[in-house]
Every structure is written in structure tokens, then in C-alpha cells.
Amino acid sequence: MKFAVVTLGCDKNTVDSERYVAELRAHGGEPAPGLDEAELIVVNTCGFIDAAKKESLDAILEAAQHKGSGACRAVVAVGCMVERHKSEMEEALPEVDLFLGASETDRLAAELHARGLIGDAEALHPGVRLYTGSTPWVRYLKLSEGCDHGCAFCAIPLMRGRHRSFALDDIVREAQLLELQGAREINLVAQDLAHYGRDRRDGVRLPDVLRALVRETSVPWIRNMYLYSAGITPQLLEVIAGESRIVRYLDMPIQHASDTVLERMRRPERQRTIREKVARFRDAVPGVAIRTTCIVGFPGETEDDVAQLLAFLEEIEFERVGVFTYSPQEGTRAAQLADDVPDALKRERLERVSELQRHITAGRYESRIGARAPLLVTEGPADGRRAGGRLPWQADDIDGLTWLDADVPAGAMAEVEVTEVVDDYDFHARLLRVLPHDAPRTLPAAGRALPVMGSSVGSYGR
């Protein structure tokens, strides 16, 4: 049986989709080269905001069209949006053969087997999760699932449940498997990485995870994504500053800079504490790049609140800022508030914040010209184009690329000199040397017999 997995939403969904792919392959499935040839299409939905829901519905409807025009025998919808709206989706989308919410996806193989769509699983070592990916150099590793934060605007706890930290041994084993599959960078993801371990009794926290990954793998780059500033501790700063393979980069969502808006959002930080944490991080980790996200148009937001946000961004000078307009989500606390900022005003405020940040980013990036830094080559030379990749301050898929003046194969690490900023968020760089490639660590004996998944993913879209 040939299958395809369509992935929408965040990097955590990407991890889930890779697991679905591995499970389907273990049951005899084969990734299809395109949706037209897939006998089974799995759509991993996102239900975070209205735009994501629409994208998920469009992807489901597109997949369903292949039941009449292609080889498709079944369409399955899984993930966050299904978790929130399963009954409505079942009624509205009869062309979908199976709906499984984020809390039910352990039933995927059994349900498909019962329908005669997949066979029995091959023998796999118990307790080990296998990954596969379309780009083997950069991979994502979840440290936990769910969220205990009570942000008023966010439906994630309603879709993913309460926070559950994964065991350290499982995390290390997954990282080793990713390395064996070719990973040169592992991005650690969770709803809040800094919350890791607070639900466990073994005392293991994020700094312990980072030390273990450095000790037990040879992956050149380990990147932290999605930390609340409230969880940035001196111990965490010490590990990041002291371990050269932990990328000096932080994705720290602040969501706003007006204390009154932050209070209504039920965020744990305030402007003063955010400012202090950023200063502490920059003092402890020189050269760190900090990215954040903001929401404009939250209920009750005034022009003064927006002015405070703009002034704060101008003061702090984050490397990058993702800006979003607020949309109410059913079941959240904020949905009970009057959505009193008109859509046109939300869009105008988004443009103002985005335009300011473009100038700030330009200044931050100009300061990087002349810097010597390591670069992970993710784009090999092709069609007359030279190789490209990412510098430490460029996270996968969100922070632009750096183009070299030489041909270097994908997957290589190189030392470069930054020569120019291009197209706002990209760089040109001069190759200084290709760095040596350390061999991956071998797995313990229990894991060496495991089949290592290839680079074919059968996953389309983001």
C-alpha cells in the first residue's frame, strides 16, 4: 500500500507525522511520490487559529478529491483540529474514512489494519520510536507533550492535554536514531521547553537533557525552541554558554509588552521581567540570537498598548519577531471577552509592528557582516545555484538562508565569513573551510539491530 502524510501546523506536528510515517512503513506501507499515487492519505491537522483550521479543511478536501481521480482508497484526518471538532467534522466531511484526535492517534495502525488497508507490523524493538524525514540534516525532537499554562488565547491544552515530560532515556535514544539517519542539527521542541521535568519525580530538568544530548550524541548543533522567559534559569544559561554544540539561539515568545494586555492574556511575564531575562541571557551568552512572537488586536488592546509594544521592541532589538493578529478560539478564556478590535485595525497594527521589526532586523543583520561563523549546508548546489545553508542565528524554516560562493554538499558543516545581507533576511557568505564530519555514536546493543529509516517521508505541505 502506498501512502502520503500531509502535515499542517507547527514543528511538533512534524514530529507526529514522522512517527505516523514510521508506523505505516512498519506495517508494510510505502511512501508515495505524490498524492495522485497514494492509496492512503493521512492529513495531520492544525487547529491553533482560524487560518490554520481553514488550511486543514482545504487539505482534507483536496485529499478527498483523489478518491475519485487518483489511486486513493481512504482519507484519514488526525491531530489537533480533529481533537477539538471531531463530531462537527464527521458530520460535515462524510468523504473522510477515519477521524482520530491528537489523543487517539495510537489507534491509527489498529484502525487501518481492521479496514484491511495495512498489514501486520514488522518486528520492532519495543519502546523505540522510529523517525523518517524529508530533510535528514535538520530534525525535530519533542521533549514533552501538552501544556499546563493557562494563556487566555490558547487552545493547545484543549487539543494536546496537560503537560507530560518524556523520559530522558527515550529522548536520548531518539536523538541517537536521528543522528544515525543523518541529523546534523536537532531542534528541541515543546509547548514550553523550560517546563520540562516539572511533572517528573526524578529531578531531571532541561539543563540535564542538554548535557545528556551533548554527551551521548555527536550532533553538531542542538537548538532550543519555545521557552517561556519565566523558565530561563541560571543553570540553563550556564549550560548553553558552556556547551559549544548548543546553538546560541532562543525562541522566546513574549506575545505582548503591555502589562495590562499581558495580564488579560494570563501570561506569567511582565515587561520588567522580560527585559531582565533578555539582559541576563545576553550577558551570559554573548552573541545569542533571540526570536519572539507577538499578538496584536487582543481584546481591549488600546493605542497606548500598541505604543508600549513598539517602544519595547525598539528598545530590546530582538533578532526576529513573528507577529500575528488575534482571533478568538472556542473554549478559551479570551473567547468570553468582546473581540472589540476591528479586523482592519488588527491588520494595520500588524503592519506597523512588522515594519518596525523589519528595520530592527536589518540593523541586527548588518552587524553580522564580517562575522566568521559555522554554517550547516542544507541546500546542495543545483541548477547553476551555489550551495546554501543556515548560520547559528537562522532557525530552520523561519529565519532565512545563507548562500555560499562555493559548491559544498548538503549535510556538510563549514566555516564561513558573512559578506552581505540580501532580501531582508538572507545572507551571502565566503567559504573559509569545510569542517570535519564526526562519525555518529553507535547505539547500545539493544538498538543496533533496529532498521534505520531512510530519507523518504511521503509528507507534503506545512
Task: Describe the protein in words.
This protein has 462 residues and is α/β, with parallel strands linked by helices. It folds into four domains: 2-123, 3-Layer(aba) Sandwich (Rossmann fold); 135-251, Transcription Regulator spoIIAA, CATH 3.30.750.210; 252-367, Transcription Regulator spoIIAA; 372-434, Beta Barrel (OB fold (Dihydrolipoamide Acetyltransferase, E2P)). Helix content is 34%, strand content 21%. It has 13 helices and 19 strands. The protein has helices spanning 11-26, 50-69, 80-92, 108-114, 156-160, 168-180, 206-216, 234-242, 259-264, 271-284, 303-316, 343-366, 445-448, and strands at 2-7, 30-31, 40-45, 74-79, 98-101, 138-142, 144-145, 164-165, 185-189, 221-224, 246-251, 289-296, 320-325, 372-379, 388-390, 402-404, 413-422, 426-434, 459-460. The strands form four sheets. Strands 1, 2, 3, 4, 5 and 19 form a six-stranded parallel beta sheet that branches. A six-stranded parallel beta sheet has the order 6-9-10-11-12-13. Helix 2 (50-69) links the parallel strand 3 (40-45) and strand 4. Helix 7 runs parallel beside helix 8. The model is unreliable at 123-134 and 444-462 (pLDDT under 50).
